[in-house]
Amino acid sequence: MSAAAVPALAPPRRAWATDLPVLAVAVVWGASYLAAKGITTAHTVVAVLVLRFAIVLPVLVAIGWRRLRALTGAQWRGAGLLGLVLSGIFLLETYGVVHTSATNAGLIISLTMIFTPLAEAAVTRVRPSAGFVAAAGLSVAGVVLLTQGGGFTSPSGGDLLMLLAALARTVHVLAMARIKAVRDADSLSLTTVQLGAAVAVFAVLAAAPGTGASPWSAAADFGVRAWAGLVFLSVFCTLFAFFVQMWSVRRTSPSRVSLLLGTEPLWAAAVGISLGGERLGLLGAAGAVLVLAGTAWGRRGAVRE
């Protein structure tokens, strides 16, 4: 049994109560590609990350101050470690998106669906079910078709960064489930410490020479639309997303969480079509069906070690 295990015969209503918030995270993360591309350049990556995280951090500290003080030293260290991993994920993803196409980024990051059950199996020494692996493979095949409407370009340095980001996401999901100190701690407090650790990393990088624009100069150049995008990235794609992920991974398996989050490219395509004027095409529509079918299949057969 893993740290994130729940009873194998959990009522369907309880399973959906856990799955739906995770699916909502996949939706907002899918929308984050368009939002991030609208406000970020290679020169402003670190500055935007500082602003993105710093917007919500004071609010979290104010709301959860008493619960933060109740955390033990081990819980602070565990959450801080998760925050360091989180900072790496965002640096890799943001630089990756800037230096590759959104099509490639969506396809490559979805490989987390495969990496997580394989890594979880290696850690727990429990082989994932054949049905789950097949469902994940079906979802990845769907992502391939889904992204062909934009055309898969030749691999680039940005593609490598997105691949590393997918690996880092896997590490983050597994670490949340396996670090004993954070198992029973308050989810809001753990999210706050994680974001605080990430902001500290970004602030240090922003102060270093050669890392691009400062957060203040980047903020001064933002218009109303850019600020709206930043607030969306901060509140929904950061605060809401990682609070839900921390909450859910301790109530189900990391593989199940990862599979649901793997629908992210589907929502990215939906946002691109509805707001960005992109065309899905016949192959893309077939891919969307495969992603949904693979995810639904995998939900029923997800390993609960």
From TrEMBL:
It is a multi-pass membrane protein. InterPro entries: Diverse_Substrate_Transporter, EamA_dom, EmrE-like. Its main location: membrane. GO terms for cellular component: plasma membrane. Pfam families: EamA. The chain crosses the membrane at residues 41-64, 76-98, 104-123, 130-148, 160-177, 189-207, 227-245, 257-275, 281-298. Residues 20-147, 158-296 form the EamA domain. Keywords: Cell membrane, Membrane, Transmembrane, Transmembrane helix. It is found in: Cell membrane. Belongs to the EamA transporter family. This is EamA domain-containing protein. It comes from Streptomyces griseus subsp. griseus (strain JCM 4626 / CBS 651.72 / NBRC 13350 / KCC S-0626 / ISP 5235). The lineage of its organism: Bacteria, Bacillati, Actinomycetota, Actinomycetes, Kitasatosporales.
